[in-house]
Amino acid sequence: GDSLVDVLLEFLEALVHQVLFVRELYSPELFERQRLYGIAVRRARHPDLAAYISDAVAGLKAPLASGSLAKVAIVVLRPDRTPVERFIFEPRGLDVEAVEAHLRGLLLKLQYADSYLKKLPPSCTFEVVAYT
């Protein structure tokens, strides 16, 4: 139902913000602490960036609701637009509890990203890509 889609969108939005924070695509001062489903997350305060993320995630609502969204990737790009990293979420066939557990796992894993991901080259950007 709608509630699952809304939960998914909320989590995905948080996931994008968290990736940007953890991977240091933007200055840490741009982020504020928040809690989502009992997990400490960071959220970008910059209005343009927050709006861009919000719009990108809102664009996933229809394919998510219709079940045609196979996966979503948050892709980190070098300045020449070649992908460096992909953070992938696959929503297929999950119920609310499974989705929350899956996304909570992703968010928690991201908190330790420093220990298993190399430092990014300077001036990376990102995009949110939907695969249907």
From TrEMBL:
It comes from the Eukaryota. Residues 2-132 form the HORMA domain. It comes from Chlorella variabilis (Green alga). PANTHER family: MITOTIC SPINDLE ASSEMBLY CHECKPOINT PROTEIN MAD2 (PTHR11842), MITOTIC SPINDLE ASSEMBLY CHECKPOINT PROTEIN MAD2B (PTHR11842:SF10). One of its GO terms (cellular component) is zeta DNA polymerase complex. This is HORMA domain-containing protein. InterPro entries: HORMA_dom, HORMA_dom_sf, Mad2-like.
